[in-house]
Every structure is written in structure tokens, then in C-alpha cells.
Specification:
The complex is a heterodimer of chains A (279) and B (161). Chain A is an alpha+beta fold. Chain A has helices at 13-22, 73-78, 80-84, 89-96, 100-103, 108-113, 121-127, 144-147, 152-155, 222-228, 235-248, 259-278; strands at 6-8, 27-30, 46-49, 58-60, 64-68, 131-135, 140-143, 161-168, 173-181, 191-200, 203-212, 219-220. Chain A has a five-stranded antiparallel beta sheet. A four-stranded antiparallel beta sheet of chain A has the order 9-10-11-12, sandwiched between helices. A three-stranded parallel beta sheet of chain A has the order 1-3-2, covered by helices on one side. Chain B has helices at 23-29, 74-77, 85-93, 102-115, 121-127, 139-152; strands at residues 3-8, 11-16, 48-51, 54-57, 70-72. In chain B, strands 2-1-5-3-4 form a five-stranded mixed beta sheet. Chain B folds into two domains: 3-77, Beta-grasp domain (Ubiquitin-like (UB roll), Roll), CATH 3.10.20; 85-152, [2Fe-2S]-binding domain (DNA polymerase, domain 1). Chain B is globular, with a radius of gyration of 16 Å. Classes of the chains: A alpha+beta (279), B alpha+beta (161). At the A-B interface, helix 5 of A face strand 4 and helix 5 of B. Bound molecules: flavin-adenine dinucleotide and FE2/S2 (inorganic) cluster (2 copies). One FE2/S2 (inorganic) cluster is lined by residues 96-101, 133-136 of chain B.
């Protein structure tokens, strides 16, 4: 360590954005710090602490709900809306992150930006059609589908700061399911699955299935979604959707889980999650 | 170099820290060696402290980030001469072997009991999910948490044989 020379504590968002822009890649945003404590991006000599800019909590944005970037994972898990919206998948996913002391530190923004294969929130936000709000040199709103098409570090420039993630409010009856598969509660995920079903009566109007931890980036599985959308899904439809998900993904392999094992996990857990979301 | 103020176990102190210094290192430098360094990367929980009442692993908290905060370490909970009921319960239950995890464990217990005075076993396990113990096997730690909850609620203690 010792490469970090300066610690900036801006009072406003504008000031933070200005410092980031001026420092041209030599400064980086510090949110929860749980990742920056262990490794810093190359060439960075300044931390810009954004934890006191009031970017905390949820806000109503009309047709969506904004979760502000510096909301901790523990705060997300305890907000009433996390239980009420989408059958509580946000709360379930938040509680699946790391451990109690870490949930008190990790921020929603940090979890979404510094996406590691094991990050638990990106998958669930992707399944809920979330959008990321960026302020910086150019301010923009990016659907998570595009944000995760490549690693966010490629699309975020040095002056960019994520201020919030927006989740569309559910329309009609929506059911969902989330699971994190690991060896202990405080373990990196071998797999996360989020399944969401937008219903009209018994018919699933739209369906989303997102996987985390099987590839470097979270992903949607349209092959599984199209087996369910527009149907009153039967058990066979769900089994077929899960098999197609397993066939469509080329899982990463590491010292704990082989490719084949992860594929088996996908087949089993996509089936169970879709079953829960659709019934 | 950032100047920061911390209130550690009720005592206000001001110090200069490196911009990337971790709270664990600051606290130990200030003589608070009851905060233990295990892994140094957020996985073992031995360095846990309460920051404004919330349990955090101080090895991955930047000191400058918690400027102005109130910190409680295990010695702030109670000392050998004046132990807190949680600490007494840990001793009584045999939940301390080498003792390295204990400062973190008792603070995790404090954070839990402040929020949930009568936790069930699954709530206890959840609250201690970031604190590893390589000696006890956890059974006695869970008993200690249950015992301290009863004592703090003023209920009769279940005698240990
Ligand atoms: C031991 C351990 C276990 C973990 N286990 C899990 C787990 O099981 N599941 C899980 O989901 N996560 C887990 N994590 C957390 C994860 O790996 C990251 O550390 C965490 O998500 C980073 O969030 P942060 O708020 O601490 O970010 P920081 O460390 O503050 O920042 C991380 C990066 O993101 C950038 N950044 C942060 N916020 C913003 C923003 N608003 N705008 C622009 N850029 C930003 C920073 O510049 C930096 O490059 C674990 C972490 C540790 C240390
Ligand atoms: S030393 Fe901090 S968690 Fe292990
Ligand atoms: S008593 Fe030795 S690690 Fe817990």
C-alpha cells in the first residue's frame, strides 16, 4: 500500500464529480471501501469519499423506485419496500450478501459497479429490469442489460459516479424467487438465480431469469424466459426452460466447482425458482 | 494526511492517519490491542468493532471514512474487573478457548441483543455469521448468547453444572 496519497471528502455531489473529472483517472470513488481496502485500481492516488453525500435510502421516482448508491446492503435488507416489492426478492438477495459485519459496510452502488463473479445484487437487479443512473462528464441512465454487456469498468469513465439504481414499479401481479447456492451462509455463491413472473390471471405475461456467479458477469437467459412467457406454464414447460438455461450457458470453472457441476446446479435451481415464481 | 476524531470507548481522541489506513491499524496504534487482527481481509470477524452501534470488520474500514464516529471495542463493553453480562456468560458457558475470536464475538452479541433482546437460535447464527471460531465449535458460543440474553432480561439464570 501507500500509493494512495490524498483523501477527499466532498460536501456535494457536484464537488465530487468535479474532483473526479479534474483528477482524470487518478482519483476513484470510495463508497463502502470493502473492495478498495483490498485492492485499488492501477494509477489511482486519491480517494473521493462519497459516503456523506446523502445518497442513502429509497425514493419514489414515479414509475420506478430509486435505491441510492450509498445505501448499505444491511439498510437495503431492512427497508420495508424491499419486502413489499416483487415478493421480497430484494430483501432476500441483500440478506444473502456476505456476512452481518460486511452487510453493514458494502454499498448497493459498490456492489453493482465492482461486479465480482460472486456479487449477489447485480443478478436480482438485472432480472427486475433495473437501470443505473450515472452522473459525471455525461449524465445518463443505462439499462442494466447494457451496463453488464461488458464489465462496467469499460463503460464508466474516470469522472463517472453512480448515484442510484432504479427498479420499475411492478405492474399487475408479480411473483418472484431468488436463491443463492453456496456451501455456508457466508460463502461466495456457486450460483444465484432470480426468476420473476409478471402475471395476468394464471398466464405469465412476461418472465425474466437471471443468473449470477456462473460467468464473470451476471446474465439473463432469454432461452428459458421464452419457454415461459405467454403461457400458463406446466411442470414440463418449467423443466424444459431449466434444461435450456443449462444448455445455453458455458459456466466458469474454478477450484471449487467444475463446469459440469455448475451446469447441474443451473438445471435444478432454475427449475425450482421458476416453479416458485410461476405458481 | 487526514486528521480525524474518534470517540473510542467513550474517550475522544484526535489523530493523523494515512489516507489508506485501516481502522484496525489505527486502533491498535492507539493502544487498543483488544481489537485482534486475524485475516486482515474481512473474512474472520476477529477485528469486529461497533461503529456508531453497527458491527463492522475494522480491518477493511478506512479510518478517514469514519471520522467523527463512536467506536466500541470489547474493552469498552467491559473489562476483567468489571465485565459486561455478555462477557460473563461467555466465560461461564466455556465459550472461550484460545480467546482470539472472543472480542469480535461479544461485540456481535452486543449488536444482536441491542436489536433483538430475545433471539432464537437461527437469529443468533445469522448475527454471528461473520465471526469465525476455530476452537469451540460454536455450540457453547450460542449457549453463551442465550444465557446473556436471559441475564440481560433479568430472568433467572439456568445453572451450569
Ligand atoms: C470477505 C468479503 C466477502 C464478500 N462476499 C460477498 C458476497 O458474498 N456477495 C456479494 O455480493 N458481495 C460480497 N462482497 C463484497 C464485494 O466483493 C465488494 O467488496 C463490494 O460489493 C464493494 O462495495 P463497496 O461499497 O465496499 O465498494 P468500494 O470498495 O467502496 O468500491 C468498489 C469499486 O467500485 C467503485 N464504486 C463504488 N461505488 C461507486 C459509485 N457509486 N459510483 C461509481 N463507482 C463506484 C469504486 O471506485 C471502486 O472501484 C464481499 C467482500 C468481502 C471483503
Ligand atoms: S481481521 Fe478483520 S475480518 Fe479478519
Ligand atoms: S476461542 Fe479460539 S478462535 Fe474462538
Amino acid at each position: 500500500m501507500g500509493r494512495i496519497q490524498f483523501y477527499e471528502r466532498p460536501r456535494t455531489l457536484d464537488e465530487a464529480v468535479r474532483i473526479l473529472a479534474e483528477k482524470k483517472g487518478k482519483a476513484c470513488v470510495l463508497a463502502g471501501g470493502t473492495s478498495l481496502a483490498l485492492r485499488q485500481p492501477p494509477g489511482v492516488d486519491t480517494f473521493v469519499d462519497i459516503s456523506r453525500l446523502g445518497l442513502v435510502g429509497m425514493e419514489d421516482r414515479g414509475d420506478s423506485i430509486a435505491i441510492k448508491a450509498c445505501t448499505t446492503v444491511a439498510e437495503l435488507a431492512s427497508l420495508p419496500q424491499s419486502y413489499q416489492l416483487y415478493g421480497g426478492v430484494l430483501a432476500r438477495a441483500a440478506m444473502a450478501v456476505a456476512s452481518t459485519p460486511l452487510r453493514n459496510q458494502i454499498t448497493v452502488g459498490g456492489n453493482l459497479v465492482q461486479v465480482m463473479p460472486w456479487s449477489d445484487l447485480p443478478g436480482v437487479m438485472l432480472a427486475l429490469n433495473g437501470q443505473i443512473v450515472i452522473q459525471g462528464t455525461t449524465s445518463r441512465i443505462v439499462p442494466l442489460k447494457d451496463f453488464y454487456a461488458t464489465h462496467p469498468r469499460n463503460s464508466l469513465s474516470a469522472g463517472d459516479l453512480v448515484t442510484e439504481v432504479r427498479i420499475p414499479k411492478p405492474i399487475g401481479r408479480v411473483q418472484s424467487s431468488f436463491v443463492k447456492v453456496g456451501k455456508t451462509v457466508f460463502d461466495y455463491a456457486a450460483l444465484t438465480v432470480t426468476a420473476v413472473a409478471w402475471l395476468s390471471g394464471n398466464q405469465v405475461r412476461e418472465c425474466s431469469v437471471a443468473l449470477g456467479a456462473v460467468r464473470p458477469l451476471p446474465m439473463r437467459v432469454p432461452q428459458a424466459e421464452e419457454e415461459i412467457a405467454g403461457r400458463i406454464p406446466t411442470r414440463d414447460d418449467v423443466i424444459r426452460a431449466a434444461a435450456r438455461a443449462a444448455g445455453a450457458v458455458e459456466p466458469s470453472q474454478d477450484y471449487r466447482y467444475s463446469k459440469d457441476y455448475r451446469r447441474q446446479l443451473i438445471k435444478v435451481w432454475v427449475k425450482r425458482c421458476l416453479h416458485e415464481a410461476c405458481s | 494526511m487526514p486528521n480525524i476524531t474518534l470517540t473510542v470507548n467513550g474517550e475522544k481522541m484526535t489523530c493523523t492517519v494515512a489516507p489508506d489506513e485501516k481502522l484496525l491499524d489505527t486502533l491498535r496504534r492507539l493502544g487498543r490491542t483488544d481489537v485482534k487482527k486475524g485475516c486482515g481481509e474481512g473474512t474472520c470477524g476477529s477485528c469486529s468493532v461497533l461503529i456508531d452501534g453497527r458491527l463492522m470488520t475494522s480491518c477493511i474500514v478506512f479510518s478517514a471514512r469514519v471520522d467523527g464516529a463512536e467506536i466500541m471495542t470489547a474493552a469498552g463493553l467491559g473489562t476483567a474487573n468489571a465485565p459486561h453480562p455478555i462477557q460473563t456468560s461467555f466465560v461461564k458457558a466455556g465459550a472461550v478457548q484460545c480467546g482470539f475470536c472472543t472480542p469480535g464475538m461479544v461485540l456481535a452479541t452486543k449488536a444482536l441483543l441491542d436489536a433483538v433482546p430475545k433471539p432464537d437460535v437461527s437469529q443468533i447464527k445469522m448475527a454471528l455469521d461473520g465471526n469465525m471460531c476455530r476452537c469451540t465449535g460454536y455450540v457453547k458460543i450460542i449457549e453463551a448468547v442465550q444465557d446473556s440474553a436471559r441475564v440481560l432480561a433479568g430472568e433467572n439464570e439456568v445453572p451450569h453444572e
